[in-house]
Design goal:
By secondary structure, the chain is mostly helical. The protein has one domain. 56% of the residues lie in helices and 0% in strands. Helix 1 crosses helix 2 and helix 2 crosses helix 3. The longest helix has 14 residues. The protein is globular, with a radius of gyration of 12 Å. The N and C termini lie far apart (23 Å).
């Protein structure tokens, strides 16, 4: 199994956190986005989690 670094994706939409998580865990980006959106509608907690991840996960360079 290959060890991958966790980086934010190169997308400009919402900081690339979902794209980076999807790439790291080999999951479809839309599935992660759906979880964040549904969780936000129900609990509002994912907004804070997303902001923390956006601040902690480095942006991919190159």
């Amino acid at each position: 199994m290959e060890d991958k670094e966790l980086y934010r994706g190169k997308t400009w939409i919402a900081g690339g956190v979902c794209a980076g998580l999807a790439d790291h865990y080999n999951i479809r980006k839309g599935a992660i986005q759906a979880v964040f959106v549904l969780g936000t509608v129900v609990y509002l907690v994912p907004v804070f989690i997303y902001i923390v991840l956006w601040l902690l996960i480095p942006k991919r360079t190159g």
